[in-house]
């Protein structure tokens, strides 16, 4: 962690290479968070890119180096919310906008050949946008309820109850999925 904080300090002083190293360390987490929230690889890449650009421009405003991860995920979360609002404005379903996204999911490889990711993605489809964001922040970015509440501008109890309901939905979907096999 202290190494990351030193990189943040250097990046705040204008060291582009240090910022690049920070980006390399956090990109995967950011991408998967955005992908599970937005459900489309192109949008996830776009929102991560947009987030990194915004973070680079405003990095000098960051007060504490140790807050870098929560700060950049707050930016990412807000950008994801903006994208979701845009989806609603277009009043098109994500699946209709990107029919190839399901095929992309099947071709993505992970340690287990991508099967877990496909299952997680299918199950997360059963959640509402805000529930998916809360679960993604918790599972993929490792945030606690207090941090999620702060990032999303919600009360901690609200996050706790939404997370609990979402986890119950996920468990039910998972059980249904397993009973089909």
Verbal overview:
The chain is mainly α. 77% of the residues lie in helices and 0% in strands. It has helices spanning 2-12, 16-38, 41-58, 68-90, 94-97, 101-107, 115-124, 129-139, 145-152, 156-180. Helix 2 crosses helix 8 (129-139). The protein is elongated, with a radius of gyration of 17 Å. It starts with a helix and ends with a helix.
How do the helices and strands line up, and which of them pair or pack?
Layout: H1 2-12, H2 16-38, H3 41-58, H4 68-90, H5 94-97, H6 101-107, H7 115-124, H8 129-139, H9 145-152, H10 156-180
Give a brief description:
This protein has helices at residues 2-12, 16-38, 41-58, 68-90, 94-97, 101-107, 115-124, 129-139, 145-152, 156-180. By secondary structure, the protein is an all-alpha fold.
Major sheet details = none
Mind telling me the C-alpha Rg? Answer: 17 Å
Strand content: under 5%
Number of helices: 10
In the predicted model, the low-confidence regions spanning at least 5 consecutive residues are: 91-114
Shape: elongated
Spatial separation of the terminal alpha carbons:
43 Å
Order of helices and strands: HHHHHHHHHH
Overall SS class: mainly alpha
Please bin the fraction of helical residues: over 70%
Mean pLDDT: 78
Overview features:
181 residues, elongated, mainly alpha
